[in-house]
Specification:
Radius of gyration: 14 Å
Structural class: mainly alpha
Strand order of the largest sheet: 1-2
Number of strands: 2
Order of helices and strands: EHHEHHH
Length: 127
Amino acid sequence: MHFVNSQTNDLATNSSVNSDDEMIKIITKIIEQEYELRINQTEFTYNRFVMHLRYYIKRMKKHEQISENDNSKLFNTMRHDEPEIYLVAKRIADYVDSQLDTNSNDDELFYLMIYVKRIVNKMNTQA
């Protein structure tokens, strides 16, 4: 896994940026509202997603992003096969980007799609 630094200087803190925990709560609500489900926040799948979000937010604050050269085909396939998952992941990325004044790349979106899909699948199997 490679990281791309999209800026060489440190991130100037934005006073409108929510705390990481607040951002994660809002992201959780985005998924719950989009899929009309209640996420069990004690589930391993959700906690794994939260861990991913914490690292995602941390990378974005540092203006570093995952950069995998081989993910474009997988990203495009998943985007085509799972348009709802893509739209939710895009909504999450747009929210994070608006809070941190960043621009998430396709690799970051791809990983968000994977984690959103896992949560939705897990919650749907429990319903």
